[in-house]
Amino acid sequence: MHATDAGIIRTTIRERYARTARGAVPGDGTAGGSTASGSSAGGSKAGCCESGCCGSTDPAQARDLALKVGYTPKELQDMPEGANMGLGCGNPQAIAALRPGETVVDLGSGGGFDCFLAARQVGDAGHVIGVDMTPEMVEKARRNARSIGCANVSFRLGEIEHLPVADGEADVVISNCVVNLSTDKARVFREAFRVLRPGGRIAMTDIVALADMPGDIRRDVRLHAECVAGAETVGRLEAMLADAGFAGACVRPSPGSAEKLAAMFPNVDLKGLVASAVIEAVKR
Ligand SMILES: C[S@@+](CC[C@H](N)C(=O)[O-])C[C@H]1O[C@@H](n2cnc3c(N)ncnc32)[C@H](O)[C@@H]1O
Fold this sequence. Notes:
Blueprint: H1 6-22, H2 59-68, H3 73-76, H4 93-96, E1 103-107, H5 113-122, E2 127-132, H6 135-148, E3 153-157, E4 170-176, H7 185-195, E5 196-209, H8 215-218, H9 221-225, H10 234-244, E6 247-253, H11 257-264, E7 274-282
Parallel strand pairs: 1-2, 1-4, 2-3, 4-5
Antiparallel strand pairs: 5-7, 6-7
Helix pairs in contact: 1-6, 7-10
Bound molecules: S-adenosylmethionine (SAM).
S-adenosylmethionine is lined by residues 13, 17, 53, 85, 87-88, 108-110, 113-114, 132-134, 137, 159-161, 176-178, 181-182, 227.
């Protein structure tokens, strides 16, 4: 089934990540559930990717995926088991330059992996708020926080298009492989702008499009849930950030990532179409 309806896409994404949170094998051919397109694209086993958000339920594979997208062995130490599900496509910490005392909001926090890393950086005087629309993910992240006694992190159930965060509450908005999933990215950036204090910044990693997405890929709801079909072009993302009010909007595709992404979806012609990228901007 092909779908362009935002509600169907959102439901498909929520079902897919609920299964991931429950420990179902990601990319097992069930992604998208009854609303999936039926395409075999991306339906490989855990660890199907080196730079995308397919994830893995196997801790060793998830660790390998995290190292491949830019985390350091030190960052992976002492993480709650299952917080890293290999769902990221980069390492927002590497560009966020977090400082002690800062308040950080993580859009689409999943099992809380990036939140726990951010919590180490901002320390006891800081705070990290993870927002995710999938109840199973929020529950998992809260369990993870309890398991390591992490007191400067909280997880809120909500949509990144309607952030459950007060105006000006955040110093930094981070996100890892999530904005591509939104059907209203302009609204996500407007929300990020609203919750940041003046001088605040965004530091995200995400999948972006290097060219206009062919219609058959764009409409494939399963490829959307797998972080491919919803990717937006660099130029349009930068324009959306500027329209939201940000200064210095910069979207930089990571060298070599397009080839890795294309390789992980052997049944879809993604050559030169998508890449992982870093997204930075400042609220002046
Ligand atoms: C690819 S996973 C990334 C998780 C996490 N950032 C990481 O790197 O481990 C996408 C996550 O974003 C959440 N998500 C997707 N769309 C969302 C939306 N519109 N609002 C809130 N959460 C969303 C999903 O529930 C899922 O947990």
